[in-house]
Write a structure and sequence with these properties.
It is built from three helices and five strands; from the N terminus they run E-E-H-E-H-H-E-E. It is an alpha+beta fold. The chain has a five-stranded mixed sheet. It has one domain: Roll (Ubiquitin-like (UB roll)), CATH 3.10.20.30. The chain is 17% helix and 22% strand.
Length: 105
């Protein structure tokens, strides 16, 4: 299993075991990670699973495609390292990934 650490807007860390092939969002929901709402269920039709990827992981996670970039326009606290967690697939290479959950507004 791949370990991923989610850091809430309040600074609390929650490390979860994420199964290969699942999305980061699915892994967060299965572990009841606070702040990953995922209203659309992973269809890239909302921005309620928005995360900030730790800088050292950006190359491995990759850049958002055009559809994801458009959805990110609806998210709060957009940064260059913003991604929708529903669009990040878990692989063994992401073991140790750290993402921050923006504050809900």
């Amino acid at each position: 299993m791949t370990k991923v650490t989610f850091i809430t807007a309040g600074g609390q860390a929650q490390t979860v075991e994420a199964g290969a092939g699942l999305s980061l969002m699915e892994s967060a929901r299965r572990a009841n990670v606070r702040g990953i709402i995922a209203e659309c269920g992973g269809a890239c039709a909302c921005a309620t699973c928005h995360v900030h990827v730790a800088e050292e992981w950006l190359a491995l996670v990759g850049a958002p495609d055009e559809m994801e970039r458009e959805m990110l326009d609806f998210a709060n606290d957009i940064r260059p390292n913003s991604r929708l967690s529903c669009q990040i697939r878990i692989t063994a290479a992401l073991d140790g990934l750290v993402v921050r959950i923006p504050e809900e507004v």
